[in-house]
Amino acid sequence: MDVFEMVSQAREAMTVRRVYGDPYEKEGVTIIPAAKVRGGADAGGGKDNKRGSGVGYRIDATPVGAYVIKEGKVKWKPAFNLNRAILGGQTVAVVALLVVRSLVRARAGEHGERLFRRWFGR
Asked: Are 116 and 105 in contact (CB under 8 A)?
């Protein structure tokens, strides 16, 4: 497979059909799923074809939501990413603990240091 054929296949794979899935209808409601699609391609080769060559591409699709069509009205329903929500909660918790630690140290001075050592074992 040559480079031009691989690039052509990558281009065909990253079409609108990847972003907007096939619509489906049930009980008078039409749903059109949507995704964020990213991709890239790369190729490399040896000098004078002595070391070989290679071509590759990657496509990454993440659901972002769906358009819901009911009674002639279109509504956007975003997808909920549970992993992102959990990571966000963990980040907020770590930042909150660091702020509390700084406030305890700054507010109480020497007494705060003793409390901090008692609570956190340092």
From this structure: yes
